[in-house]
Every structure is written in C-alpha cells, then in structure tokens.
C-alpha cells in the first residue's frame, strides 16, 4: 500500500466501536461482577507474587526472578484490556479511536509475545537446574538472567509492533463495529476492505515465529529434562525433579493451547462470537492461572506467602 493511501486511511477513518458482550443483554451485569472478581484476584495475586519474591531473600534465584517478570508481564497485559472491557459492560457499546485501537493492539500483542519468550527462558532455566545442577549458579548468573529477560521484553515489543503495522497498513471501510471487547487481530482484520491475504500471511508468519520458535525451545529443554529425570535411579528423586517443572509445564500447556488456537488459523475459520468467548480464556482466566498454579504447586512460594501474611498479621497485632 502506498504512503498516500495509508495517510488517507488514517485521516478519514475516525475509529471503532466495541460491541463487546452487548448480545448478552441483562447478563452483562452478571458478567461484569464475575470478570471484576476474577480481575481483582488476578491483579492482587500477580502483584503479591512480585512483592513476595522481591522481599523474600530465599526467592532471589533465577527461577523466581523470571516468575516475577512473568507476573509483571501478565499484569501489564490485563491492565491494557480488562478495565476497558469492564467499563464497556457498564456503558454498553464503547468507542475507541483509530490510534487508540492501534496502541491497544500493540501493547496487548507485545505483552502476549513477551510471555511466550519468558516461558521459553523459564524452560531453559529448568533445563540448567536439572541437567547441570552443579553448574547452575555459575551458568545462570545475574548478568545472563538480565540479558535473557531484556531480550524477552525487547523481542515482545518488536513482534507486537510488527503485528500492529501489518494490520493497520490496511484500509477500513463499511462497518466500524468490532464484535469483540478489545482490538485483537482477528476481529480488526475482519473489518478491513480490499485484499487482506498479504496481511493474513504476515500475521500468520509472525505468530508462527513467536509461538513455534519459543515452543520449540521449550520442547528441546524438556526433552533433555526428561532424559535426565529418567536417569535418576530412585522414584523419589524422579518425583522431586519433576515437581520443580510441574508448575511451569502446566502454565505452558494452557498458554500455548489458547494462543495456538487463536492465531495459527486462516481467516476463513474465524468465528467472531466463538472467538470472543475463547478470548475471555486467555485475557481473564489464563493470567489468573499463573499465580494460582505457582502458589498451589510450589512449596517455596507457599512458604513465602505464609511468612508474608504472618508478618503482616503480627505487624497489625
């Protein structure tokens, strides 16, 4: 598309309107209460994990450092989507400017991609911890951890920018109503006019690079981890080694399952009504599962949480 067409598109198209859950009628009040409840738990839990890891010296290890980064990324991801969605449930159809929609897509895509790369880094951390435990401290030194985390955030921003540019290079005509509660790529792409095949291919390629590349790294890490665990002679030793990966593996399965279904599909298979309900899973439910899974399955986090709560109660007493 020429620069002139892109400029005309930007100045002539004022914005979009989210239809959100308008088709649910009176049930929107119930949805508001439910989503608000889940969001407050998600926000509180992720912030609490970040604070606990920061304050508890026993959790100052690479594994928990990356977990705090993941909680931070999930918090930023939900902040850019859920508050506006909740407001839309209260006031009904909600307008968003062209620039505002592009900004929301950029930030939501950036944080989503960052989550994928952080999960891959966390898989590498588990690989080193189990396959080379004697060299764990020397290999996973603070400088390397900082570089891995920085690369995850930078890569997430670059891929998010690429996805946003691929979508917003298009012209939009006809209806400006988005059958969704935020500016996700499938519903916005469905409003574009003209030939969108190149943009569809661009989104597919970028999604493949993010999801498959990070998942491939995770798979390689767990292949070596599995071999190392099977070599442990005692059943108790194998169980203990696997338990250190169980939380991360659970989050990976949930995260990549939802993301792959949503973004590794051709446009012809989109169903806006169904996809909107699926989007609730990865925008509301999945960010909540991260702190829950790590809190329920990780003894160190459980102990730190209990100590933090006990210290707070004693401080009040």
Descriptors:
single chain; 12 helices; 317 residues; 3-stranded mixed β-sheet; mainly alpha
Number of strands: 3
Helix content: over 70%
Structural class: mainly alpha
Q: Could you spell the SSE succession in H and E letters? A: HEHHHEHHHEHHHHH
Which oligomeric state applies?
A: single chain
Quickly count the helices: 12
Identify low-pLDDT runs.
1-13
Rg computed from alpha carbons, rounded to a whole number of angstroms: 21 Å
Spatial arrangement of strands, main beta sheet: 2-1-3
How much strand? under 5%
Distance between the termini: 67 Å
Report the major sheet: 3 strands, mixed
Summarize the structure.
Helices cover 77% and strands 3% of the residues.
Structural overview:
The chain is mainly α and 317 residues long. It has a three-stranded mixed β-sheet with strand order 2-1-3. α2 runs parallel beside α11, α5 packs parallel to α9 and α11 packs across α12. The longest helix has 34 residues. The radius of gyration is 21 Å and the shape is globular. The N terminus is likely disordered.
How are the SSEs placed, and which strands pair?
Elements: H1 3-12, E1 15-18, H2 27-55, H3 62-79, H4 82-91, E2 94-97, H5 98-131, H6 136-139, H7 142-168, E3 177-178, H8 185-189, H9 197-230, H10 235-263, H11 272-297, H12 299-316
Parallel strand pairs: 1-3
Antiparallel strand pairs: 1-2
Helix pairs in contact: 2-3, 2-4, 2-11, 2-12, 3-5, 3-11, 5-7, 5-9, 5-10, 7-9, 9-10, 10-11, 11-12
């Amino acid at each position: 598309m020429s620069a002139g067409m892109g400029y005309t598109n930007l100045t002539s198209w004022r914005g979009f309107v989210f239809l959100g859950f308008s088709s649910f009628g009176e049930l929107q009040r119930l949805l508001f209460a439910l989503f608000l409840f889940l969001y407050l738990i998600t926000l509180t839990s992720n912030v609490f994990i970040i604070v606990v890891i920061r304050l508890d010296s026993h959790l100052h290890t690479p594994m928990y450092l990356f977990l705090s980064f993941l909680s931070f990324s999930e918090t930023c991801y939900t902040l850019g989507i859920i508050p506006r969605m909740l407001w839309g449930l209260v006031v009904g159809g909600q307008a968003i400017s062209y620039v505002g929609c592009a900004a929301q897509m950029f930030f939501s895509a950036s944080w989503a991609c960052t989550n994928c790369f952080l999960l891959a880094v966390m898989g590498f951390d588990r690989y080193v911890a189990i396959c080379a435990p004697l060299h764990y401290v020397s290999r996973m030194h603070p400088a390397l951890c900082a570089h891995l985390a920085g690369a995850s955030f930078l890569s997430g921003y670059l891929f998010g920018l690429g996805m946003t540019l691929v979508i917003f290079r298009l012209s939009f005509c006809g209806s400006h109503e988005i059958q969704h509660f935020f500016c996700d790529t499938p519903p916005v792409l469905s409003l574009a006019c003209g030939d969108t095949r190149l943009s569809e291919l661009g989104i597919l390629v970028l999604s493949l690079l993010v999801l498959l590349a990070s998942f491939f790294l995770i798979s390689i890490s767990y292949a070596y981890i599995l071999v190392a665990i099977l070599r442990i002679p005692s059943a108790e030793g194998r169980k203990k080694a696997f338990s250190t990966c169980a939380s991360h593996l659970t989050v990976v399965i949930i995260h990549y399952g939802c993301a792959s279904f949503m973004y590794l599909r051709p446009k012809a298979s989109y169903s806006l009504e169904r996809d909107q309900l699926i989007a609730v899973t990865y925008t509301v439910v999945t960010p909540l599962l991260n702190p829950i899974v790590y809190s329920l399955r990780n003894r160190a986090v459980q102990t730190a949480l209990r100590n933090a709560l006990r210290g707070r109660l004693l401080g009040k007493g």
